[in-house]
Amino acid sequence: MIQTAFQRYINNFRGFTREVWILTLITFINRAGTMVLPFLSKYLKEDLQFSYAQVGWIMVAFGFGSMLGSWLGGKLSDKIGFYKIMVFSLFTSGIMFFIIQYITTFWGLCIGMFVIMTVADMFRPAMFVSLGTYAKPENRTRALTLVRLAVNLGFTAGPALGGLIIMNLGYSGLFWVDGSSCIVAILIFALLVKERKKPADLNTINGGTEIPASVFKDKIFWIFLFVCFATAMLFFQLFTTLPLYHNEKFGLTEFQSGLLLSLNGLLIFFLEMPIVSFTQRKDISKLKIILWGCVLMSISFYLLLINIWAGILVISIIIITFGEMFIFPFSNSFALSRAPKGHKGRYMALFTMSFSLAHIASSKTGLELIGHFGYQTNWFFMGTLGLLSVLGCIWLQKLVQIEQK
Questions:
Q1: Cα 199 to the chain's mean position, in Å?
Q2: Were both Cys, which of 69, 101, 106, 213 would link to 175 (CB 3.0–4.6 Å)?
Q3: What region holds the Major facilitator superfamily (MFS) profile domain (predicted)?
Q4: Is the pTM of this model over 0.70?
Q5: Dihedral sign, CA of 369, 375, 380, 383?
Q6: 123-134 and 82-100 are packed helices; what angle lies between their axes, rounded to 10 degrees?
Q7: What gap in Å lies between CA 314 and CA 331, rounded to an integer?
Q8: Which one-letter DSSP state was computed for residue 209?
Q9: Over the stretch 61-73, which tens digit does the pLDDT of each residue have?
């Protein structure tokens, strides 16, 4: 029985090209290597003695650099190809991580973080476009899911490794390891993967429906971006307001909060790929799955209004994790399949920018609401934002049905 279940699980990972596995490996190395990020605010506050306000502004510069990088990476992927952008982004940001440890002034770090994130996040849309090229058409959603697993595993391993490096080598060691991981990852990619042109079948969606030539005229895609932004706003609460709530309301330790986040990572690792494979076998519409994910996300935050029992935190995190598994792999795939010929990079740029913007807005909005009105107001606001994304999905389904007639 266990052997059969294990075999079924392994079967979900079959059928990928060699290039997709290499992309997954370098994504894991890169994400595990970005171990500076979880410790960045701590480094700025404790080592460099910046005020909370100054740390906040450096993180804002970080966020806006990420947005600009996403846009440039997508646009340049269309102009000169994703391969060159990926190599430039990882190699240059690796060198920059070596340098930025020597910048210790407030304005220097604002500019430095903006520039480094602009270069580093050019990688993300280019990587999405590369998956559209290297993965077989029937495997694209699963290939995106595979890379998401690598990202999750990298984020799980990174902070633990980062903590060990800080204890033994200090923060400077963190910057050296981070920069080295970027360079090692892209050298593996450049040596093992050859540049390839985009396949023709990525030019249309849903078997041939023509899409507006400009992304700015694609109404369906902009409604879809709102849904992505809203759900990402909810998702990022996991790393900003929820750990604070765990401690302030229920007295959970950092270790107990970490266990709850680990539950999220474990569920994704074991269940996301089987869920994606099942929905593809049953040929369930991507938008329908995303809709159900939005419903679950919304419910998970309304459940937090029940603040008299700590067990609700476990139930809420399980529901938000299923929401995440229903939304993110399929939204990646929908965005990739939506783009017409020559515009894939621009579409994936706006898609990744919606997450960068949500990253900036989520913590700021959540913390402001909590500061002025308390946690209950924030949970109600986030649950209602989830409901708006549900309505956005229903509207999207109707517009796509009209477009296909």
A1: 25
A2: 101
A3: 19-401
A4: yes
A5: positive
A6: 150
A7: 26
A8: B
A9: 888 888 899 889 9
